[in-house]
Amino acid sequence: MSHGVFSVVHGNGSARTRLAVLAGLIVSLLTLAFTAPGAAHAATAAGTGTSAGHLTHPELDWMGSTVAAHEGSSAHGSAASGTVSPMVTQTPGMDVSAYQGSVNWATAWANGGKFAYIKATESTSYTNPDFAQQYNGSYNVGMIRGSYHFATPDTSGGATQADYFIAHGGGWSADGKTLPGALDIEYNPYGATCYGLSQASMVSWIHAFANEYHAKEGVYPVIYSTYDWWSTCTGNNSGFATTSPFWIAKYSSSAGTLPGGYGFYTFWQYADSGTFPGDQDYFNGPISGLQALANG
Question: Which of 71, 184, 217, 228 is catalytic?
């Protein structure tokens, strides 16, 4: 026992009382030593929307998994400034994740599916356990396929998540059968809509992801989102329109208003169920245009 500690408890009263006070002091010191960092972490987490075990259900986070709850699944938007109509030819496809499990690709092909996007990763801690069956199976029946990353901007930086995506199935090759990777950026399934980021910080995060992907793969990623989320969380930023194709999610009879800078969509997720496994999508053009995108 140090003299300093002894001096705190020294005074009037019995030895038992002094020992009791001393024991209480030691308990308090130990409590501070072991719980203060956790409390500080909790406070930090509360401020950013993250917490220990943040990704509690990544198998339920697929492209569009948050859209219907926020925007509905069948409401028809009215014509507005910026609303676009599809080109005459729309090439049908789908996007799937671990939620679909093992997919019958032969049936999807027979039903007219020409392309598929498959979830590969989320944050820097999750990989789709069904990725190989889905990614290779779609390719083997003749589809043009690609992979996507479910973004969680509050868990790590954009470049870090791009690298993780690339390392776990998100790469691209100019073989005419592999589409550029896609960034799925949508409503936060775990908390604050914009993941606790300001509009400027969100734009920076997306740029970091897109630029890293381009630096490593030679093409920019497709960006998937909704007009509402994009407007809310990026301030309808138009700085991606010259580099990244846009994949609009709109469960309606038309794709609706597009984000700033985009005169047309490249992909449209128009329903969350239908003929194909997973979500129902169109490529905005003929199969030759889809092949051109796959070729970079």
Answer: 184
